[in-house]
């Protein structure tokens, strides 16, 4: 990376098309927290819940040249996108832009066009394991908690999990915010992780094996998921 990291970051996105930038403010923190993985010789498996037009996926792929990423998104938007006229206007184009923006990484990107409950359930049943999980789909409390509980057992020891928007949504009720979900998860599983960063986002490292079996949890969550709005 050059003396001015922002120069590298700008080059990574040259020629790509994005309607929004919700991620570049996080690049310095991500670069610091994931710095030890940049030169890692073994492949790094990334799980991303909520991809939009692929900006965060591109960053992870560029930052960690040995990485592969599974991107889960319905590409239909969430309630906040439907309520914002500018975001709603871009919904018909976001999957097309995602495909174009990630085309250069052929073989390293697995796109799953699905709601997160079904996708995470299938990944868990398949025995998939990940080094990094980015939870950035629905920003509603119950949805975030469900995504987290399904993804956590698939995170390897030493793996890292990032929650977006922990410090956001303060104009909404707790039912529409990320923070209560993350706080509740930490109450339940705090002994299994070490906090690496807490700010607008929260990033933890998994330091102990999860006591929760993915299959049993998935059965309960599938029933709950039918009643939840999904990203």
What Rg is obtained from the alpha carbons, in whole angstroms?
A: 17 Å
Straight-line distance between termini: 34 Å
Q: What percent of the residues sit in helical stretches (DSSP H or I)?
A: 25-40%
Quick one: how many beta strands? Answer: 7
Q: Briefly, what is this?
A:
With 231 residues, the protein is of the alpha/beta class. The chain has helices spanning 5-12, 27-33, 55-63, 79-83, 85-90, 94-102, 116-125, 141-151, 179-189, 214-225, and strands spanning 44-49, 67-73, 109-113, 130-135, 155-163, 193-198, 202-206.
List keywords for this structure.
231 residues, alpha/beta, 10 helices, seven-stranded mixed β-sheet, globular, 7 strands, Rossmann fold
SSE diagram, text form:
Blueprint (H helix, E strand, L loop, with lengths): L4 H8 L14 H7 L10 E6 L5 H9 L3 E7 L5 H5 L1 H6 L3 H9 L6 E5 L2 H10 L4 E6 L5 H11 L3 E9 L15 H11 L3 E6 L3 E5 L7 H12 L6
Parallel strand pairs: 1-2, 1-4, 2-3, 4-5
Antiparallel strand pairs: 5-7, 6-7
Helix pairs in contact: 7-8, 7-10, 8-9, 8-10
């Amino acid at each position: 990376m050059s003396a001015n990291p922002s120069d590298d970051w700008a080059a990574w996105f040259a020629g790509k098309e994005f309607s929004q930038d919700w991620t570049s403010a996080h690049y310095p923190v991500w670069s610091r927290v994931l710095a030890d993985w940049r030169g890692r010789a073994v492949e790094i498996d990334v799980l991303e819940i909520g991809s939009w037009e692929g900006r965060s996926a591109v960053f992870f792929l560029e930052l960690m040249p040995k990485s592969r990423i599974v991107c889960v998104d319905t590409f239909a938007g969430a309630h906040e996108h439907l309520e914002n006229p500018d975001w709603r206007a871009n919904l018909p184009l976001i999957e097309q832009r995602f495909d174009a923006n990630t085309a250069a990484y052929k073989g390293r990107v697995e796109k799953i066009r699905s709601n997160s409950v079904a996708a995470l359930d299938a990944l868990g049943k398949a025995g998939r394991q990940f080094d990094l999980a980015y939870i950035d789909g629905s920003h509603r409390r119950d949805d975030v908690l469900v995504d987290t509980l399904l993804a956590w057992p698939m995170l390897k020891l030493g793996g890292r999990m990032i929650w977006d928007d922990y410090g956001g949504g303060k104009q909404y009720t707790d039912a529409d915010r990320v923070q209560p979900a993350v706080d509740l998860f930490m109450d339940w599983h705090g002994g299994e992780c070490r906090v690496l960063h807490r700010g607008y986002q929260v990033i933890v490292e998994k330091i102990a094996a999860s006591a929760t079996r993915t299959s049993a949890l998935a059965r309960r969550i599938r029933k709950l998921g039918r009643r939840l709005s999904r990203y």
